[in-house]
Amino acid sequence: MSKVKSYLQKLFHRDHHSNEHASKPVLHTFGLSVWSAVPELAIQELGLDVDTKIVNVVEGENFAPEFLKLNPKGTLPTLAVDGKTFTSSTDVTHYLVQTASKKVTPGHPELIAKIHDDKYDPNFILLTTRNEEELKTASTGFPITFVQNRQNALEKYSALPEGAKFKDFYTEKLEANGGVLKIYKGEVPSADFFNTSTTHWQTIVGYIQNDLPTILPESGFIGGAEPGEDDFHIGAWLARVAWVSGADKEEEGYKALEKELKGPVPEKVVSYWKAWSARASWKKVYAETLH
Fold first, then answer.
1. In this model, does residue 6 exceed pLDDT 90?
2. Is 286 exposed, middle or buried (0-12, 13-18, 19+ CB in 10 A)?
3. Whether the Cβ atoms of residue 170 and residue 154 lie closer than 8 Å to each other
4. pLDDT digits (tens, 9 = 90+) for 174-197
5. Among candidate residues 116, 114, 84, the one with its CA nearest the CA of residue 99
6. Cis (ω within 30 of 0) for the bond into 77?
7. 46: enclosing H helix or E strand
8. Cβ neighbours of residue 269 under 8 Å, at least 6 residues apart?
9. Which of 245, 236, 144, 124 minimizes the C-alpha distance to 185?
10. Which of 132, 167, 269, 290 is the most buried (most CB within 10 A)?
11. 95 assigned to some structural domain
């Protein structure tokens, strides 16, 4: 987390978007978005030529009415191509896989749907606090900055005339995000949030210890010798969990998971991490840090 600020500074000094090729797909993305990493890995593995447009979720730009016109859910990644818009990592990545010249193993819908289930949400673990110590860390670090910025953006955009069309969206987000902000500020009791956070982490740990090894091969990827559609999702999800657990971008970042697992990482998960971290696509997407 301590490297987030420096990473963001580097991120916004890059030229991510070109208007020279209007016919090219445009991926709306952000460098700290876990689900944006899914199509980003796919783009690298498939050798695709895709323009990218940065939407700064840390500043709440994804809540702007102009972006909600493109994606009413206000989420990343979002892909605009040939007059169509794809608004989830599942749909975006599936489109890329289906239309790429290079063919990879198609995904299993049930597997992909499971990793995107709310109970395994890799975004929530960024905000979780299971005890007073974690709450203190969150309330003085990146989590409260992130949540406060989101609240400020929601209040700003919901007050605009063009935001009236998205009133229900803003009302729901203001309440949910504001609830977390109140916990960080100590304005409401935190016990229930501690319990919810603990349960969420237990579910994440259970998936890594019990479920994930059953779908991973002894070596390589779910898609075979090279990553397939399933792997783009699983790899990005695992990178986020490792990052929140304390890993940076080191090839053995999986070791950070030992803290949460309270023991060794399953051998298949270790093998899978090593297979991913050795690839050029992984090194490109996670060049600065895991996220």
1. no
2. buried
3. yes
4. 999 999 999 999 999 999 999 999
5. 84
6. yes
7. helix 37-46
8. 208, 212, 213, 216, 238, 254, 257
9. 144
10. 290
11. yes
Counting the structural domains of the chain, the total is 1
- Collect contacts of 41-45 with beta carbons under 8 A, ≥24 apart: 41/227, 41/232, 41/235, 41/236, 41/281, 41/282, 41/285, 42/93, 42/96, 42/97, 42/229, 42/232, 43/96, 44/280, 44/281, 44/284, 44/285, 45/102, 45/104, 45/226, 45/227, 45/232, 45/279, 45/281
Q: Confirm whether 58 is domain-assigned.
A: yes
Please provide the distance, in angstroms rounded to a whole number, between the alpha carbons at the two ends of the chain: 9
Q: How confident is the model at residue 23 (pLDDT cuts 50, 70, 90)?
A: confident
**CB-based burial label for 252 (10 Å; 0-12, 13-18, 19+):** exposed
| Identity of the amino acid at 151 | Q
Q: In 55-148, which ranges are E strands?
A: 78-81, 84-86
Q: Which two tokens stand for residue 41?
A: 């890995």
Q: What is the CATH number of the domain that holds 61?
A: 3.40.30.10
Domain that holds residue 42: 25-104
For the full predicted model, state whether its pTM sits above 0.70.
Answer: yes
pLDDT surpassing 70 at residue 19: no
Assess if residue 258 is contained within a domain.
Answer: no
For residue 268, give Cα distances in angstroms to 104, 224, 273, 277: 21, 14, 9, 14
Contact by Cβ (8 Å): 104, 233: no
SS3 content of the chain, % helix, strand, coil (to 5): 60, 5, 35
pLDDT digits (tens, 9 = 90+) for 116-155: 999 999 999 999 999 999 999 999 999 999 999 999 999 9
Q: 33, 74 in Cβ contact below 8 A?
A: no
